[in-house]
Amino acid sequence: MTKKLYWESDALFAQVEVMRCQDTEDGRYELQMIATPFYPQGGGQPCDLGWIGDAEVSHVSEDQGVIIHYVSSEVPLGTNNARVDGERRRVHSELHSAGHLIGHVLEQLDWHPIKAHHWPGDARVVFKPGENSQPVDVGKLQLLCNSLISQNLSCKVKIREDGYREVGFGDFSAYGCGGTHVKNLVELHGLKVLSLQKKKNQLTVHYEMDVKHTD
Q1: pTM for the whole thing?
Q2: Structural domains of the chain sorted by starting position, each given as residue range(s) with its CATH number in brackets
Q3: How far apart are CA 190 and CA 66, in angstroms?
Q4: How does pLDDT run across 40-55, given as a tens digit for each residue?
Q5: Which of 58, 70, 107, 147 is the most exposed place for a label (fewest CB within 10 A)?
């Protein structure tokens, strides 16, 4: 099992211990560390990229709790420095938190999230209706999201005794989540709700973050 440093801290730099580095058929190297600051692809969120020593990290995946880093060159075993691409992490964290925010808002209207995809250029959350689901449109959803963003609700992370991680904002119910997030919803002031589509009794919300915004 690889210790997930990104569960405990948003730090983009870490001193790491490389325990395995093996070449692959495509010319890259598979690298495993005792603990990692790199988020692996999954849970609707793309992986972190960056560097371990001088080697560039081109992909990160997880298999049964073991996180594998694919790097451009061989890295010696032992202590080294890891650096996560901060801009990529910021974009993915904002999109993931924005998906949670949209979920919180629509749950108040009795729509319940069933799957999410927090990828740049294709971010969306899919909902199923409850017995008393209320009508909603782009304008209404945008206003409700903006209202919560202005309330400066902080991110709350809890890791239960069974190892299950939960993430929530303010007093909203937390979602089970292993991804990275913003520290406060005010960081989502660039959120734009693009469209709502209803099909086969499901509601899909498409959204994006304005990449031009500054914190």
Answers
A1: 0.93
A2: 3-84 (2.40.30.130), 88-209 (3.30.980.10)
A3: 35
A4: 999 899 999 999 999 9
A5: 147
